[in-house]
Design a protein that fits this description.
Two copies of one chain form a homodimer. The first copy, chain A, has 483 residues and is an alpha+beta fold. Chain A is built from 14 helices and 23 strands. Chain A has helices at 19-29, 46-65, 79-82, 86-92, 118-128, 173-194, 240-245, 269-278, 306-321, 337-346, 357-361, 383-408, 416-425, 438-448, and strands at 33-35, 42-44, 69-70, 76-78, 97-102, 105-113, 137-146, 160-170, 200-203, 215-222, 228-238, 248-250, 256-258, 260-267, 295-299, 327-329, 351-355, 364-369, 375-379, 410-412, 429-434, 451-456, 475-480. The longest helix of chain A has 26 residues, at 383-408. The complex binds zinc ion (2 copies). One zinc ion binds next to loops of chain B.
Chain lengths: 483, 483
C-alpha cells in the first residue's frame, strides 16, 4: 500500500514559521538522533552517526598528514588536577559530573568525568617530556566528553558529546602559536571545503576565550536563522598548563624550561551547523562530499515495464559506483515514486536519478538536483561524467549560496544604536569597534543579547571608535546572537 | 653519541625467568602504554593506540559488510535500568562506578558509567521497534566502558577500556542465534587471519556465560605462559532483555511478540593477547597485517659512503611503498646500526632491510626476518616481489608457530588427578568430561585454579565421564588457568 505522497512534509515546520521547530522536526524526521533517557543526552542514530564518521575520517587524515598521532587518555580526572590551573577550574567546575562511588566503596578522591583533557594530559606530558629531543609532542584523541549544561539542544549542546581534542607541546612560543594557527587553518579547510560552510576566522576576546588559554582562535559560521555557531577552536595555552603540571624540558642551551602547549577541538555540534546552514523546508540538504549516499536511483513507470526498467537501473548503478560515487537504488514496490522523491529530498541526497521506460528508450535518464531542484534529461552515454561534474557543481554551489547568505548578513555598525537595531531586526554578524575593555563587551551582551564572536584576522574594515564608550577602538569585533 | 648497542635488552626480563615481568617490560619498553593517575586505568600511547586503530578498521569493515551500522548511545545509565534484568544487575553491580553529583547538584537518581550497554540500548530499541518491518536491527557501537576491577593488568584488565559492542534484535530465535554464530565467526576470522592467533571456539558453561545471556559463545587463545585469554564473546540473549525492556513487535501474523536479541564484543584486551602470543625475549613481534610499520630500512656503512647509501635507500623506500607496503627508513646518525637493529626487533617490525655500500655494488640488499631471525641477501631487481612474498610468509609462519604451540599444549585428561597434574605442571588447555553440574565445575576451579574456558563445538574427542563425580559426561570442556 503506497504511503501518501505528501504525508511527511506536514511533519516539518517551515523555517519561516519557527526555525527551532524546523530544526527538531528535520533531525527527527531524517532519523539522525533520538532523545536519551539521561538528562541532556542524545542517541546518535546510524544516519546521524554516519555523518560524524565521515567528518572523523576527513579530519583524522588531515591530522595525520601534519604529523599528529592518536592516543587515548582516561575518562576520569582526579579532583585535585582541576586545582592546578586557576582559570580552568573556574571555567569548568560548574559543569562537572562527579563519580563519588565505585566498586561498592566511596572514593577517597572524587573523579570528574572529563569535560576536556588538558589536565590529565598535562600530567602525563610532565613525565614524557624531559629533553628538547622529546619535542614537539603532537597528539590527538577521539573521545566522548561531558559537560552538565543547563539548557541543551540536540547536537549543538548536549551533556555528553563526541569530539577530538588535539594536545601539543613545543619548545618555543613561536612554534606553539604556529601550531595553533595551522590547526585553525585545517579546521577552516575542512569546514569550508568538505562541509561547504563559509567561516569567520578570528581571535576570541579575553572574556570568550577558553578557560586557561592565553589566546583562543575560532571559526564561526552563520546559521539560516541569523544566529552564529562556533564551529571549532584552537588554543594557544602558553605556559599556563606547563606551570600547573610542571612540564619542563632541558633545552639545547642546558637550561630547564617550561614547554608551550596548545589544544584544539571540533565536536559533533558541527552536525548542527551542517543542518542549519544547508537545510530548507524540504528537509536536510547534504553537500556531496559528506553525503553517505550521493545519488539515489528510483525506477518509475508502469508495472508491466518494471522488470526491464529495474534491470536497466541496476546497470546504471553499477556504472556509477565504478567511479567511486556513493549510489543506491530504491526499487521497493510498497512505496510510490512520489513518496520516494520527497523522502530522499528530505534526507538531503544531492542527486536523484529517475529511470523510466520512455526515457530509457530515448537513451536518457532524468536527473534532479537537491540544491536547486533543477530537473534535466541527460544522455545515458554521458552518465558518469555528468554525475561526477554535477556533484562538484553542487558542492560549489552550496558553498556559494551559503557564502552569499553570510555576506548579505554581515553588517557594519558605526554606533551602538545601529548595532542594537541590526541585532534585534536583522540578526547576522555585526562588526563594531571595541576599545578592548571587558565592560563595553559585557554591555553589548546585556543590552542586545549578542556576544562577541571573534576579532577577525582580516576585518572588512578598521573601525575607529568603540560603539559603547566612544574611546578609540583597538579592534573591530564580530558580534552576533549565537547558539 | 651512539647509545650502547645492548643497553635496552637488559630492560626486558626473559620470559622463562618471569613471564609477567617480561610482559610489563615489553609494553613499557615498546612505548605502548603508560600507567594513568586513576586507579586501574592506563594511557594508550600512540604506538599502542595505532594497534587498536588497525583492529578497529579491520573489524569495522567486516561489520559493515555484514549489514551492521554504527551508532552511539549515552555513557551514563540510570540505576533503575539495571534492575530490569535480574542476572545482569547481579553480574555487574559490584563493578559499577556511580555519578552521584553533577552541575553542582546531587542527582535524584544515580547514574552508572556504562560497563556494557544492553540496558540503555534495550530501552531505545523498545521505542524504535514496532513492527516486523523494523527488524532486524543491526547496530554496533565503538565506545569506552568502565568496570571497577579489583586486580588490573595493562590491556588485559583495566578499569576503563575500549571496545565495540554489537547489539541486534530479531524476529525469531533462529535468526538471532545465526547472528550470534556469524559474529563469532567474524571474530575468529579476524583473530586468526589478521592477528595470526589460533583460537578455541565454543560455548561457555552456564557459570561462565554473560550475565543475562541465554548462551555465550567465545573464542579463547593460549598465551605463551600457558594461560588462556578470552579473545571475544558473542551472546544470544534470548528474550531476556526484550522482556525486561518491553521490546515487542507486531508480527506478520498480527501477534505482538518479544524480539530476540544478541550482543557481541571485542576489546583492547586483544592487544594483550597479540603481545603474549607472539612476543619473545627480544620484545614484540607483530604479524605483518597489523604492523603499523612492516619494513624498516636501515642504511649502514662508513661515513664517506653515507650520502650515496642514503640516496639509494630512499629509492628502495619509494619502490616498496608503491606496493602499499608500510615502510619507513631510519637514517638517524645519532644512533648506531646495531642499536637500531635491536630497537626495531624489540618493536616487532616484521622485516628489516640493511642497505650498505658493498651490497649496493653487488646489486643486492640484506633482509632480516623478525619471526625467524633469518638473514638473506636478495637481488634488488626482485625487491618488491620478495618483500611482498615474505610478508605473506611471515604472517603464515607466525600463525603456524602459534597453532603448533596451542596444539602441543592442548591435552586430554581422563581423570581429575590427570587434569590437576597437567594444570599444575604443564598448564595449557585441558579437555575433560563434565556431567553438566555446576558443583563439579566449581570443584575444579577451587582445587586446581583452572576455569572452564568453553565447550568446543568440535571437540577433539568425546569424553565419557565427568572427571569430578564420575557420572556420565554431557560435554567435553576445555579447562585452563586464565587471564
Ligand atoms: Zn569601550
Ligand atoms: Zn560431575
Amino acid at each position: 500500500m503506497p504511503k501518501s505522497d505528501k504525508s511527511f512534509v506536514k511533519e516539518i515546520t517551515p523555517q519561516s514559521e519557527d526555525f527551532s521547530r524546523w530544526y527538531i522536526d528535520v533531525i527527527r524526521r531524517a532519523d539522525l538522533m533520538d532523545y536519551a533517557p539521561v538528562r541532556g543526552c542524545i542517541v546518535f542514530k546510524p544516519d546521524g552517526y554516519a555523518l560524524w564518521e565521515a567528518c572523523q575520517q576527513e579530519l583524522d587524515r588531515r591530522f595525520k598528514e601534519t604529523g599528529h598521532r592518536n592516543a587515548y587518555f582516561p575518562l576520569f580526572i582526579p579532583e585535585s588536577f582541576f586545582q592546578k590551573e586557576k582559570e580552568h577550574v573556574e571555567g569548568f567546575n560548574p559543569e562537572l559530573p562527579w563519580v563519588t562511588e565505585a566498586g561498592g566503596e566511596k572514593l577517597e578522591e572524587r573523579l570528574a568525568v572529563r569535560p576536556t583533557s588538558e589536565t590529565i594530559i598535562g600530567h602525563m606530558y610532565a613525565q614524557w617530556i624531559q629533553s628538547y629531543r622529546d619535542l614537539p609532542v603532537l597528539i590527538n584523541q577521539w573521545a566522548n566528553v561531558v559537560r552538565w549544561e543547563k539548557r541543551t539542544l540536540p547536537f549543538l549542546r548536549t551533556s555528553e558529546f563526541l569530539w577530538q581534542e588535539g594536545h601539543t607541546a613545543h619548545a618555543t612560543a613561536e612554534e606553539a602559536i604556529a601550531e595553533t594557527e595551522q590547526m585553525l587553518n585545517i579546521y577552516t579547510d575542512f569546514v569550508e571545503n568538505f562541509l561547504a560552510i563559509p567561516v569567520f576566522k578570528g581571535q576570541k576576546t579575553p572574556l570568550e576565550k577558553f578557560a586557561g588559554a592565553v589566546s583562543t582562535y575560532s571559526i564561526e559560521a552563520l546559521m539560516k536563522d541569523g544566529k552564529a555557531l562556533q564551529a571549532a577552536t584552537s588554543h594557544y595555552l602558553g605556559q599556563n598548563f606547563a606551570k600547573g603540571f610542571e612540564i619542563q624540558f632541558l633545552d639545547k642551551d642546558n637550561e630547564r624550561k617550561y614547554v608551550h602547549t596548545t589544544s584544539w577541538g571540533i565536536s559533533t555540534r558541527i552536525l548542527g551547523a551542517l543542518i542549519m546552514v544547508h537545510g530548507d523546508d524540504r528537509g536536510l540538504a547534504l553537500p556531496p562530499k559528506i553525503a553517505p549516499t550521493q545519488v539515489m536511483i528510483i525506477p518509475i513507470g508502469p508495472q508491466k515495464e518494471r522488470e526491464r526498467v529495474v534491470t536497466h537501473a541496476k546497470d546504471l548503478l553499477k556504472r556509477i559506483s565504478k567511479r567511486n560515487i556513493r549510489v543506491q537504488m530504491d526499487a521497493n514496490e510498497d512505496t510510490s515514486p512520489g513518496w520516494k522523491f520527497n523522502e530522499y529530498e528530505m534526507r538531503g541526497i544531492p542527486i536523484r536519478l529517475e529511470v523510466g521506460p520512455r526515457d530509457m528508450d530515448a537513451g536518457q535518464v532524468v536527473l534532479v538536483r537537491r540544491d536547486t531542484g533543477d530537473k534535466q534529461a541527460i544522455a545515458i552515454d554521458k552518465l558518469e561524467e555528468t554525475v561526477e561534474q554535477l556533484l562538484t557543481d553542487i558542492q560549489q554551489n552550496m558553498y556559494r549560496k551559503a557564502k552569499q547568505f553570510a555576506e548579505e548578513n554581515s553588517r557594519i555598525a558605526a554606533s551602538f544604536t545601529e548595532l542594537d537595531d541590526i541585532i534585534q531586526n536583522q540578526r547576522g554578524f555585526v562588526l563594531a569597534g571595541w576599545c578592548g575593555d571587558n565592560v563595553c563587551e559585557l554591555t553589548i551582551k546585556e543590552k542586545t543579547g549578542a556576544t562577541s564572536r571573534n576579532i577577525p584576522f582580516e576585518p572588512p574594515t578598521h573601525l575607529q571608535t568603540c560603539v559603547v564608550c566612544g574611546s578609540e577602538a583597538k579592534h573591530s569585533v564580530w558580534y552576533a546572537k549565537s547558539y
